[in-house]
Design goal:
226 residues, Sortase, Chain: A
Length: 226
């Protein structure tokens, strides 16, 4: 979709009054057009050319960029969605919506029969959790199934091997003591303190991927449902 805005139009005349309410209203409307078209970068290029204030900070720009990509994804246009979401992921490794974008991409690649790419995207965000700053930006993991939506607060992030800690064998705790032992060991191994607690009866999620600082290494992220 191509957006054409007349530089001498009524909108332009409104924009030229930079400090006016009319200028701000005009830019909000124009911004909506570009977001609907999935072209947030085009909006900022237009604002620069027009010499207009955008009143959009870094966090809001990140949100707008993801919203534009998500709009395409929800429209069902898979090829364009892949392009937009990949652009978002490559554009800012610290983007607030990186885990969601990677989840969308995983589904798109799976539906296209690109299974290795689907797996890579699904677990691609896990590497970020080795950095505490990344966890602070993404403390919640969303994991949806046919049974419904689920959100999990990150409890612990650690590196281990299946031989050293058979975390993958923990499915349903036999009793409270077994549950507490598992949670305690996860927290002891954690690369940093998330401040999150888990009690017997809470539902946990354990995600892991390969890591290469040790033989047969695994990076493990454990979350508790909220």
């Amino acid at each position: 979709m191509v957006i054409t805005l007349m530089r001498s139009s009524f909108a332009r005349r409104r924009i030229e009054g930079r400090a006016s309410r009319e200028a701000q209203d005009a830019m909000v409307g124009i911004r909506g057009l570009y977001v609907d078209a999935g072209d947030v970068d085009g909006y900022f290029a237009y604002a620069r050319e027009a010499g207009a204030p955008t009143d959009v900070g870094e966090a809001q720009r990140d949100s707008l960029t993801f919203a534009a990509a998500e709009r395409i994804y929800l429209s069902g246009d898979a090829p364009q969605a892949v392009t937009a979401l990949e652009s978002y992921v490559r554009g800012d490794a610290r983007g607030q919506y990186i885990p969601t974008a990677l989840s969308y991409l995983s589904g798109l690649y799976f539906n296209a029969g690109r299974y290795s790419d689907a797996v890579r995207k699904l677990f691609g965000a896990l590497d970020g959790y080795t950095d505490e700053a990344f966890w602070r930006q993404h403390p919640i993991i969303r994991f949806d199934t046919r049974a419904g939506f689920g959100q999990y607060a990150v409890l612990a992030v650690f590196k281990t091997t299946p031989a050293a800690f058979p975390y993958h064998e923990f499915v349903n705790a036999a009793d409270e003591a077994e549950f507490d032992d598992y949670v305690r060991l996860c927290m002891e191994l954690s690369l940093y303190d998330t401040g999150i607690a888990a009690n017997y009866g809470n539902k946990l999620i354990t995600l892991s991927t390969c890591e290469y600082t040790q033989a047969d290494g695994r990076l493990v992220v454990v979350g508790v449902r909220i």
